[in-house]
């Protein structure tokens, strides 16, 4: 829970938890200039209302202004189309781990790697 290392951002709609995400960075000087966005999720009742976009915009601000980060990274499941969601927010694909995710027997997906920089 060290705020230099990790942040949990919550989106509240009239006091109800509508979404969340987590930002984590390593503390080793070798990797401390970037962080990873994990677990972006919007509650199904609130999807399509801008919660995910707002969380990602705030994550960018917190990463830059409060954590002093220079880059954000994330990984997503191939075949979901989520590259378009993140691409609209300035993220770009930098590679993939082919077949890294076994969703079910016979349904292996690539893990798509994305970056946002500068923040
Ligand atoms: C992805 C997610 C966080 C988006 O949250 P949201 O609050 O609905 O996002 P917003 O309302 O800000 O934006 C919605 C836009 O994203 C698009 N979008 C959502 N999921 C998408 C997908 N899988 N592929 C492409 N576009 C997608 C919608 O089509 C919509 O576009 P529009 O504005 O042109 O209609 C949400 O759908 C979710 O929680 N999904 C399940 C968990 C998940 O996949 N998380 C991402 C892990 S990498």
Describe the structure.
- Strand 3 (34-42), helix 1 (51-66) and strand 4 (71-77) form a beta-alpha-beta unit.
- The longest helix is centred in the middle third of the chain and has 16 residues, at 51-66.
- This protein has 119 residues and is of the alpha+beta class.
- Helix content is 18%, strand content 48%.
- The protein has helices at residues 51-66, 82-87; strands at 6-13, 16-25, 34-42, 71-77, 92-104, 107-116.
- The two termini are 23 Å apart.
- The relative contact order is 0.17.
- A 6-stranded mixed beta sheet has the order 1-2-3-4-6-5.
- It contains 2 helices and 6 strands, in the order E-E-E-H-E-H-E-E.
- Coenzyme A binds next to strand 3, helix 1 and helix 2.
What keywords describe this structure?
about 120 residues; alpha+beta; six-stranded mixed beta sheet; 2 helices; about 20% helix; binds coenzyme A
Largest sheet: 6 strands, mixed
Tell me the strand percentage band.
over 45%
Helix content: 10-25%
**Bound ions, cofactors and other small molecules, one mention each:** coenzyme A
Count of individual helical segments: 2
What is the H/E order?
Answer: EEEHEHEE
What spatial form do the alpha-carbon principal axes imply?
globular
Q: How far apart lie the N and C ends? A: 23 Å
Structural class: alpha+beta
The Rg value, from CA coordinates, equals 15 Å
- What order do the strands of the largest sheet run in, or round the barrel if closed? 1-2-3-4-6-5
Q: Low-confidence spans: pLDDT under 50, at least 5 residues?
A: none
Overall mean pLDDT stands at 96
Please provide the count of β strands.
6
């Amino acid at each position: 829970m060290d705020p230099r290392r990790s942040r949990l951002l919550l989106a509240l709609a009239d006091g109800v938890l509508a979404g969340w995400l987590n930002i984590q960075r390593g503390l080793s000087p070798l990797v401390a200039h970037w962080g990873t966005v994990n677990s972006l999720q919007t509650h199904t009742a609130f999807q399509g209302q801008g919660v995910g976009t707002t969380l990602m915009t705030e994550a960018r601000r917190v990463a830059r202004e409060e954590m002093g980060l220079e880059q954000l990274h994330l990984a997503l499941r191939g075949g979901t189309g989520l590259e378009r969601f993140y691409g609209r927010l300035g993220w770009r694909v930098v590679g993939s781990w082919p077949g890294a995710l076994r969703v079910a027997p016979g349904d292996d997906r690539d893990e798509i790697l994305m970056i946002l920089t500068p923040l």
